[in-house]
């Protein structure tokens, strides 16, 4: 539905007929611009595939120099699939950037496996070596499914106006992917320019069946006649015509100057679709800069390497055919007298090719010996032919050496060396023998990096959070989940505070019961609260400027690495960590204040190792605990066991004495109270006696 809406808007903004006529002219101009290069590459490809002539006869045999050189260079310039490396641009403690880098790297690795990036890079490598240019095209695909709104399919729409008021049914993304398509060297065009930055449009040719075109552009475009490709190219060879049978070549054009995309059938004057670019990419193009071979600064038309030694190859082929013809002449040719009765048949029987060892009886032996015996048989000399063959082989060998000098393929690269050479000499030749092909290795490595970066940009801009987590296998909480846990914590804290206030009002000491203690999160929730949210990660990935500053996407080497390289890196990391921990442990005991410095030093060293990125989070967690423990106040030193026993004994005695003194004080207080009561009683008795005596006096 979204594609149809964009197509409808494009038809309103641009006239398909005018746009189609304009781009047919542009495509024809570009094809004329690249015609000589296309013709040259077609001939080179035929030579490489050995389809130009029949080599069954000696007169048509050729020396496969182009195939041999290409076979040597293929594993030298590209040997293994590039692996994405997504790192923080600055190696600092930024958990959001670290998690985002890990998620993007895993998604890129999965994308490369699903798109079969290795076979694509090998096809690009072959085009690069044969035609000096290789290209790919990236696109984003998504599968949609109807969104369940809680309405049963059998429920009738309200008033029958669902299609008018409700509009199209709601859809959700069920699956999404980044597709990497290999583009043949003859199916890619761009505007004539001297530099890639000056290119204004790029185009690729896609063969599509009628069903595919109807599904992609709709029935209206098919009925309008825009799919009619008058005079479209069906192929030069029988194989190409068979491959293109029932298909129409459609050009997909991305115009940077006009900021739109055009789909137009080859030879049709009307555009199938004109719309805004479906992807908003940093450099606009859905393809990286092609992998170029030999080029000049005057144009973007590359020069295949075969052009520079084609004359030598022609001479090598000429000498090869000459050698084959002369080799056919290396046969034993015998002359003998005829008409001698039984002698001639006997000589013929002895000279038959199928007879390795033969004994021939001669009845007329006397006549045979009278004519000279074996001297009666005369052979044609072949010494001169042999000398010519040796001279031709020497000349061909020199031409082959000239080709190796031109191409820079040394003997050490071909694996051809002499046993008399020392190990130092072979190491020097290995170091400097490949210097001529380093530029080609770097160019293919750059091309692979641009593919990974472009795929990473599409993933960051288009992939949904659920897809990012599903593909990477990294589960992160959402902002709503964190807020829900925080609200629950606040409610638990408020309940604990209220319980403590009620306890204080009742005269109970605070936190005297477990219910009054502050709430603690389970370990799983604590780990979840310590992680960044997927919303923060997606916000970082969606922001082009922040993402460019904080995340760097690269690839590892595309050439064959040392088998022990990864093992060596891991061993270096383990040795570094082990040695550092051994030295830092002794220093930490003497100077606990240096623990935070040591932790940061260890993290600084670990971030420099790619093998240490998986342990970086654990190192940060342990380092934080060590720093917190080092900054905490130290407990008092514990005494020795004997001193501890004496202290305990003294404490017991002091406690007994204190208890005894308390009992004495209590007893004295009791006696004091008893004496006071007794005195009060005596005073009361005296007062009563005095009152009685006074009453008696009055009477």
Low-confidence stretches: 153-166
Task: Give me the count of strands.
Answer: 12
Q: Estimate the strand proportion.
A: 5-15%
Helices, by number, come to: 25
Coarse morphology: elongated
Mean pLDDT score: 77
Kindly report how far apart the N and C termini lie.
130 Å
Query: What class would the helix/strand composition place it in?
Result: alpha+beta
The rounded Rg comes to 47 Å
Largest sheet: 5 strands, antiparallel
- Widest sheet: strand ordering: 4-5-6-7-8
Helix content: 55-70%
3D structure, described in words:
This protein is of the alpha+beta class. Helix content is 55%, strand content 10%. It has 25 helices and 12 strands. It has helices at residues 2-13, 16-33, 35-49, 65-77, 95-114, 117-131, 162-166, 210-223, 238-243, 310-328, 343-350, 365-370, 383-407, 411-414, 423-433, 438-462, 465-472, 479-505, 523-530, 534-542, 544-550, 565-590, 595-606, 616-631, 641-698, and strands at residues 84-88, 133-146, 171-183, 188-190, 201-208, 248-255, 260-265, 271-275, 291-292, 334-335, 378-379, 551-555. The chain has a 5-stranded antiparallel β-sheet. The protein has a 3-stranded antiparallel β-sheet with strand order 3-2-9. Strand 6 (248-255) and strand 7 form a beta hairpin. Helix 5 packs across helix 17 (465-472), helix 10 runs antiparallel to helix 13 (383-407) and helix 22 runs antiparallel to helix 23 (595-606). The radius of gyration is 47 Å and the shape is elongated. Mean pLDDT is 77; it is low at 153-166.
């Amino acid at each position: 539905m979204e594609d149809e809406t964009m197509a409808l808007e494009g038809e309103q903004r641009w006239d398909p007929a005018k746009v189609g006529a304009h781009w047919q002219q542009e495509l024809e101009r570009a094809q004329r611009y690249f015609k000589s290069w296309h013709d040259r590459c077609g001939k080179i490809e035929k030579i490489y595939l050995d389809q130009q002539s029949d080599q069954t006869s000696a007169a048509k045999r050729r020396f496969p120099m182009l195939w041999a050189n290409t076979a040597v260079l293929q594993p030298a310039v590209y040997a293994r699939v590039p692996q994405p490396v997504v790192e923080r641009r600055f190696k600092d403690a930024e958990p959001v950037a670290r998690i985002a880098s890990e998620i993007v790297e895993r998604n890129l690795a999965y994308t490369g496996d699903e798109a079969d990036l290795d076979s694509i890079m090998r096809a690009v490598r072959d085009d690069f070596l044969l035609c000096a240019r290789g290209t790919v095209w990236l696109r984003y695909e998504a599968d949609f499914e109807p969104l369940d709104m809680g309405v049963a399919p059998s429920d009738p729409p309200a008033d029958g106006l669902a299609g008018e008021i409700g509009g199209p049914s709601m859809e959700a993304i069920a699956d999404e992917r980044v597709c990497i398509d290999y583009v043949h060297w003859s199916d890619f065009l761009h505007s004539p320019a001297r530099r890639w930055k000056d290119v204004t449009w790029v185009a690729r040719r896609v063969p599509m069946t009628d069903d595919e075109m109807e599904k992609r552009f709709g029935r209206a475009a098919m009925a309008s006649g825009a799919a009619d490709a008058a005079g479209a190219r069906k192929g030069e060879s029988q194989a190409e015509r068979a491959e293109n049978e029932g298909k129409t070549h459609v050009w997909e054009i991305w115009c940077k100057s006009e900021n739109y995309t055009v789909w137009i059938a080859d030879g049709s004057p009307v555009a199938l679709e004109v719309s805004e670019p479906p992807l908003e990419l940093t450099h606009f193009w859905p393809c990286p800069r092609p992998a170029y071979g030999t080029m000049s600064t005057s144009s973007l038309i590359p020069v295949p390497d075969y052009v520079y030694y084609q004359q030598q190859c022609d001479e090598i082929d000429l000498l090869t055919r000459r050698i084959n013809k002369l080799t056919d002449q290396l046969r034993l040719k015998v002359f003998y007298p005829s008409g001698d009765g039984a002698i001639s048949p006997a000589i013929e029987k002895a000279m038959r090719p199928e007879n390795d060892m033969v004994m021939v009886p001669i009845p007329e032996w006397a006549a045979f010996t009278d004519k000279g015996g074996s001297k009666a048989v005369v052979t044609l000399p072949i010494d001169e032919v042999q000398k010519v063959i040796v001279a031709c082989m020497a000349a061909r060998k020199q031409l082959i050496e000239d080709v190796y000098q031109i191409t820079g393929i040394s003997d050490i690269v071909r694996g051809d060396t002499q046993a008399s050479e020392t190990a130092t000499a072979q190491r020097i030749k290995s170091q400097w023998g490949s210097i001529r092909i380093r530029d080609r290795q770097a160019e293919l490595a750059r091309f692979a990096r641009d593919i990974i970066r472009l795929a990473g940009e599409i993933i960051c801009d288009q992939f949904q959070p659920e897809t990012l987590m599903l593909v990477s296998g990294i589960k992160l909480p959402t902002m709503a989940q964190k807020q829900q846990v925080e609200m629950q914590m606040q409610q638990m804290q408020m309940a604990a505070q209220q319980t403590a206030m009620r306890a204080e009002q009742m005269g109970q000491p605070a936190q005297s019961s477990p219910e009054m203690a502050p709430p603690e999160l389970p370990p799983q929730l604590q780990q979840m609260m310590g992680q960044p949210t997927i919303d923060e990660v997606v916000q970082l990935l969606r922001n082009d400027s922040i993402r460019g500053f904080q995340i760097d996407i690269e690839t590892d080497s595309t050439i064959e690495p040392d088998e022990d390289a990864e093992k060596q890196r891991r061993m270096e990391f383990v040795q570094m960590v082990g040695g550092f921990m051994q030295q830092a442990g002794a220093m930490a005991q003497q100077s606990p204040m240096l623990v935070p410095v040591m932790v940061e030093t260890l993290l600084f060293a670990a971030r420099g190792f790619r093998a240490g990125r998986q342990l970086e989070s654990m190192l940060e967690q342990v380092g934080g605990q060590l720093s917190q423990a080092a900054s905490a106040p130290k407990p008092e030193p514990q005494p020795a066991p004997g001193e501890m026993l004496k202290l305990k004994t003294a404490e017991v005695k002091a406690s007994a004495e204190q208890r005894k003194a308390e009992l004495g004080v209590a007893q004295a207080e009791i006696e004091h109270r008893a004496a006071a009561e007794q005195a009060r009683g005596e005073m009361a008795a005296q007062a009563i006696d005095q009152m009685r005596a006074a009453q008696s006096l009055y009477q």
